[in-house]
Amino acid sequence: MIFDSFRNSKQRHIGYLKRRGKKIVVLVVLIVVHVVAAVEIVVVVVVVVVVVVVVVVVVVVVVVKVVVVVVVVIVVVVVVWRHGLVVDARLLDREVSCSSPALGFYMKESCAINTMYQFKKRFDTFMLSLTFRKM
């Protein structure tokens, strides 16, 4: 009888330990699940931040390239205009008059050659001025 009560008490104790062990295992599993979820949230936030930074860098690079191209075009136009490389209205008028049907063939040729010569002379002057400026 005494032995039976001890045995029952022991089995109850073992059952308690098993139930308590299950509770500890469940508690450990819950802690692990929460830690994994927290790590996943941190990873997702880091990935989103990296993607946003990359997109911002790409947009900035594209905008800078466009601005540089626009500035270069503006500088080239200003330099060309300032040095008189743009064909002025007189040369355009001369080209229009060169294509006039009233001129004979040889006159048209002479007119066109003269217009090209004027343009080449302006271009050579411009290149020469750049050469002297570098010196």
From TrEMBL:
Keywords on record: Membrane, Transmembrane, Transmembrane helix
Entry's transmembrane regions: 24-49, 55-81
Domain of life: Eukaryota
The protein's name: Transmembrane protein
Gene source species: Elysia marginata
Lineage per the UniProt record: Eukaryota, Metazoa, Spiralia, Lophotrochozoa, Mollusca
